[in-house]
Amino acid sequence: MASAPTTTRTSPAIKSSAQIDPTALPSLPYHVHRTASLNLPIYHLAKRGGNLHQTRIRKIEGNVEKLREEIVATFALREEAVVINRLTGHIIIKVL
Fold first, then answer.
1. In three state form, how does the secondary structure of the chain look?
2. Going residue by residue through the chain (96 aa), what tens digit of pLDDT does each one get?
3. Which of 22, 34, 58, 92 could make an S-S bridge to 41, C-beta 3.0–4.6 Å?
4. C-alpha distances in angstroms, 71 versus 25, 50, 74?
């Protein structure tokens, strides 16, 4: 009885973190860690019966204030729309 030939699937080459040159990346004073499923920890929240929309950024390490300033400048938001929860270390963006 002959056995069936085995086939292997090849996937496209994906650069791992070992293949990326760390000197090519900019040095930032903060880092946002990914979740266990490799997604960014950015969540949309609807509060007050859906009248208040917020975006929450979690898992921030380093200079949270600098990240807040860059979010305000990049998205042209008002200063009071982006707040830091000092207890949890989260950045909360209020969508008005």
1. CCCCCCCCCCCCCCCCCCCCCHHHCCCCCEEECCCCCCCCCEEEEEEHHHCEEEEEECCEEECHHHHHHHHHHHHCCCHHHEEEECCCCEEEEEEC
2. 555 555 555 545 555 555 667 677 778 999 999 999 999 999 999 999 999 999 999 999 999 999 999 999 999 999 999 999 999 999 999 987
3. 58
4. 19, 24, 5
In the numeric block, which tokens belong to residue 67?
């990240």
Residue type, 26: P
Q: By C-alpha distance, which of 60, 59, 62, 64 is closest to 83?
A: 64
Name the one residue in this structure whose structure tokens are 């080459």.
13
Q: Which residues pair with 42 in a beta bridge?
A: 57
What are the two backbone dihedrals, phi and then psi, of residue 32, each rounded to the nearest 5 degrees? -110, 115
Partners of 95 in the beta sheet?
53
